[in-house]
Amino acid sequence: MAAVRFVAIGDSFTEGVGDELPDGNARGWADLVAQGWANSAGEPIEYANLAIRGKLIGPIVEQQLEPALALHPTHLSFNGGGNDMLRPRTSIDHVADLFTHVLRRCDEEGVKLIALSGANPSGQLPMRRLIQRRGDELSAAVAARLASRPDVITAWNWPDRELSTPGYWSADRLHMNPRGHHRVAARVLAAVGQRPPAGWWSLPELSDAGPKGGAYYRAHVLPWIKRRLTHTSSGDGRSAKYGEWVEITPQ
Question: What would be an example GO MF term here (predicted)?
Answer without folding.
Answer: hydrolase activity
